[in-house]
From TrEMBL:
This is UPF0311 protein FR943_20465. The lineage of its organism: Bacteria, Bacillati, Actinomycetota, Actinomycetes, Mycobacteriales. HAMAP family: UPF0311. Belongs to the UPF0311 family. InterPro entries: UPF0311.
């Protein structure tokens, strides 16, 4: 390999296709300081997932464990269980990053829903199931555009092609 040979095919550009939307409502958030930043723990109260090939409830008891670092970046760690309308169970994990300016953060802390175009909030939900009707989800990599508040989160999820 010569130094002028690209490391990857420079014409390779991923495309995205809308996969589904998820809305999750939370119980009261627990916020507390740690040496790494502010921890915010959310417990899933209820939720709904809808897309062209799937409809499911997000079951109570999952959670979103967020670390708001000293750099102002929130690091997401989400785990939940979905049950489709036809009875399949699907495990959901999601990691991502959120960054808001000071004014938007103040609105968030006051309980407002912050829209996707008012902050930088992206995540990558992943799905896991052994139900053959939904095994296709196991191979899908995603990117989501997020909207957040202290009581709910909305994801518009796209499959990366």
């Amino acid at each position: 390999m010569t130094s002028t040979t690209p490391l990857v095919d420079i014409d390779a550009v991923p495309s995205c296709e809308h996969l589904l939307d998820i809305r999750i409502g939370f119980e009261s958030v627990h916020m507390f300081a740690t040496p790494l930043g502010t921890r915010m723990t959310y417990v899933v109260e209820q939720g709904r997932c809808v897309g062209p090939r799937i409809a499911a409830d997000v079951l109570p008891g999952g959670g979103d464990w967020i670390l708001l670092g000293t750099d102002g970046v929130a690091r997401l760690d989400v785990r939940a269980t979905m049950r489709t309308d036809d009875g399949a169970f699907i495990h959901l994990t999601n990691t991502g990053r959120v960054r808001m300016d000071r004014q938007t953060t103040d609105r968030f802390m006051a309980g407002e829903l912050i829209r996707h175009d008012e902050m930088t909030a992206r995540s990558s939900p992943l799905f896991e199931t052994d139900d053959e009707r939904y095994r296709w989800l196991n191979a899908v990599h995603t990117v989501a555009i997020n909207q957040v508040s202290l009581s709910e989160v909305h994801y518009r999820v796209f499959a990366v092609q």
